[in-house]
Design brief:
Elements lengths: L1 E8 L4 E10 L3 E11 L2 E10 H5 L2 E9 L2 E2 H14 L15 E14 L2 E13 L2 E11 L3 E9 L4 E12 H9 L5 E14 L3 H7 L1 E13 L5 H4 L3 H4 L8 H8 L6 E12 L2 E10 L3 E10 L4 E10 L1 H4 L4 H4 L2 H4 L8 H5 L5 E3 L2 H5 L14 E10 L7 E8 L1 H11 L14 H35 L1
Parallel strand pairs: 5-7, 6-7, 18-20
Antiparallel strand pairs: 1-2, 2-3, 3-4, 4-5, 7-8, 8-9, 9-10, 10-11, 11-12, 12-13, 13-14, 14-15, 15-16, 16-17, 17-19, 19-20
C-alpha cells in the first residue's frame, strides 16, 4: 500500500488529509479521505480490477460529502484555468479517456447562492464523456425530485427526465429569481429537458423540451388581480372609460380574484422561448386560460389570457359590465349611449369550441351565468402592469349579432349628449316630439279647412 498524508494545493484552495492506494494481484483500491476544496468536503472510494484498468475502465467510484459550495468551487475552476496551459484557439476539447462502470453519490448538502439542496443520492457511471445519474433523488428548496440525468463533461450538455413534488412556489421564486408576491401554492411537475453551456444565457438559448406542472391552493400576483386588467391601454385611452375606471376599481378591489384552487400548465422550450400551451387556473371568482410565449433571454412576452368571472363579481363592474353583449340586450338601466353604440370594439368574437376550452370556476361554484373576457399581454415581463394592452369581452357570433341589432334600435346621440344614458336620450326625444306636436296639429287643421273650402267651390 501507498499512503499520502496532508496533501496541500494552495493554488487550488484544496487540502487532502489522507490518500490510501492499495494494489493486489487483481484489484486497485484508492481511498481519498477528508478532501477540503475551498470549503467543500469529499470522501472518495475507487475500486477496480486490473483487467478493467487495462481497458481504461474503473469498476466502482463512490463519492460522499457533507457540504458542497458550488459558488466557491467555481473559484477552483478559475484557478485551474490560470495554472493549466492555454489550448490553441483551433483546438477541440479532448475526450475523457476513462470509463466508470458503476458508482454512487451521497451528498448531504449542496449550496449555491441562497439555494440549498439536501440529501442528494444517485447511481453514477461515466462513458464517452458523459456522466450518467440514474435513480437520482434530491430535495431542493424544500421539495423533492427524482429521475435521471446525463451531463457531457466536455461539451456541457445536460439532459434530464425528472419529476418533483412538494414545492412552495413562493419560496422557489424568491430563492431562484428574487421575485416576491408573484405566485404561491404547492407545486408538482414532470420535466423532460436538455440544454448546453456554462453561462445562463447560453443555457436558456439552447433549452429544449417540456415541463408539465400543477399547483394547488395558490395565489397569483399582479396577473391574478382583475383590477389590474382594467388598466389596459384600450380602456385608459377611451374617453368614456378613462373617467370611470377609478370608480370601477374601487368597487372590486376588496374582492380576491387572485386565489386559485388549481393551476395546470404545459410549457415547451425552444430557441430561447417558452411556449405556453396552455396554463389553466380555477378559482372561486375567476378562471383563466393563458396561451402565448415568453422570451427567456430578453424577458419579452406575447400572451392572451381568456377567462370566466363569477356573475356576482362581474355585476360589480358597472358601465364595463353593461357593454357585455350578453348584458346589452337586457336594456340595463343607466346604460351610456356612446358606450353602447361602440360596444363592438370591446368585444372579441370566438367560436363555440374556443368558449368551451375555458376552464370552469372552482368545483363548488356554478358558472352558468359566468361572463367571459380576454386580456392581451405584450411587453417586458419585469414591468407587468405595462404589459396589459387590451381588455375585451368574449362573445359568440350570435350574441354579438343580437347585441348589434338591439343597439341599432337606439337613438343616435347628438352633440352634447355623449354622457347621457339611453333612457335619458329617449326621454329627450319624446319631449321634443311633445313640444312640436301643437304646431303640427294647427297645420293639419288649417289644411283641412282649406281643403273643405276648395271642395265646396
Amino acid at each position: 500500500n501507498f499512503y499520502i498524508r496532508d496533501l496541500t494545493m494552495p493554488e487550488l484552495f484544496t487540502n487532502i488529509r489522507d490518500i490510501d492506494i492499495g494494489i493486489s494481484s487483481k484489484d486497485l483500491k484508492i481511498g481519498i479521505k477528508d478532501v477540503n476544496a475551498n470549503g467543500s468536503d469529499f470522501n472518495i472510494d475507487i475500486l477496480s480490477s486490473l483487467k478493467n484498468l487495462a481497458e481504461s475502465k474503473i469498476s466502482t467510484v463512490r463519492v460522499n460529502s457533507r457540504l458542497i459550495n458550488l459558488d466557491k468551487l467555481t473559484e477552483i475552476t478559475e484557478a485551474m484555468t490560470e495554472i493549466l496551459p492555454q489550448q490553441p484557439a483551433q483546438a477541440t476539447n479532448a475526450d475523457i479517456p476513462i470509463e466508470v462502470l458503476d458508482g454512487s453519490i451521497n451528498l448531504n448538502r449542496i449550496k449555491t447562492g441562497d439555494m440549498i439542496v439536501r440529501n442528494t443520492t444517485s447511481k453514477i457511471s461515466l462513458a464517452k464523456n458523459t456522466l450518467y445519474l440514474d435513480n437520482l433523488k434530491t430535495h431542493p428548496i424544500g421539495g423533492y425530485v427524482e429521475g435521471k440525468a446525463a451531463v457531457n463533461i466536455v461539451t456541457y450538455e445536460l439532459m434530464a427526465k425528472v419529476q418533483g413534488r412538494g414545492f412552495d412556489m413562493e419560496k422557489v421564486l424568491l430563492v431562484t429569481m428574487q421575485m416576491k408576491d408573484m405566485l404561491s401554492g404547492d407545486m408538482r411537475f414532470i420535466a423532460d429537458i436538455k440544454l448546453k453551456g456554462l453561462e445562463l444565457e447560453e443555457q436558456l438559448k439552447t433549452l429544449k423540451g417540456y415541463v408539465d406542472f400543477d399547483i394547488k391552493d395558490g395565489q397569483l400576483g399582479p396577473f391574478g388581480k382583475f383590477e389590474n386588467f382594467l388598466m389596459a391601454e384600450n380602456l385608459r385611452e377611451n374617453a368614456f372609460f378613462s373617467s370611470t375606471i377609478g370608480s370601477i376599481i374601487k368597487n372590486i378591489v376588496t374582492i380576491d380574484t387572485s386565489h386559485f384552487n388549481n393551476m395546470f400548465g404545459h410549457l415547451t422550450f425552444n430557441d430561447g422561448f417558452a411556449q405556453i400551451s396552455p396554463i389553466k387556473t380555477q378559482g372561486d371568482v375567476m378562471s383563466m386560460y393563458i396561451a402565448g410565449k415568453i422570451g427567456l433571454v430578453d424577458n419579452s412576452a406575447d400572451m392572451k389570457t381568456r377567462g370566466k368571472l363569477a356573475s356576482t363579481f362581474s355585476d360589480s363592474l358597472g358601465p364595463l359590465a353593461n357593454i357585455n353583449p350578453v348584458n346589452l340586450v337586457k336594456n340595463t338601466p343607466g346604460l351610456n349611449i356612446v358606450a353602447a353604440k361602440t360596444f363592438s370594439i370591446f368585444c372579441e368574437q370566438v367560436s363555440t369550441e374556443e368558449m368551451e376550452a375555458l376552464p370552469s370556476l372552482a368545483e363548488n361554484k356554478s358558472d352558468d351565468s359566468a361572463t367571459k373576457f380576454q386580456i392581451v399581454l405584450r411587453g417586458d415581463t419585469r414591468k407587468p402592469l405595462k404589459m396589459i394592452k387590451s381588455f375585451k369581452w368574449l362573445a359568440l357570433d350570435s350574441e354579438i349579432e343580437s347585441a348589434q341589432n338591439f343597439v341599432d334600435t337606439m337613438p343616435i346621440p347628438q352633440t352634447g349628449e355623449e354622457n347621457l344614458s339611453v333612457e335619458e336620450i329617449i326621454q329627450i326625444r319624446n319631449l321634443q316630439k311633445t313640444q312640436t306636436r301643437p304646431a303640427e296639429t294647427v297645420d293639419k287643421k288649417q289644411s283641412k279647412s282649406l281643403f273643405k273650402k276648395i271642395f265646396r267651390k
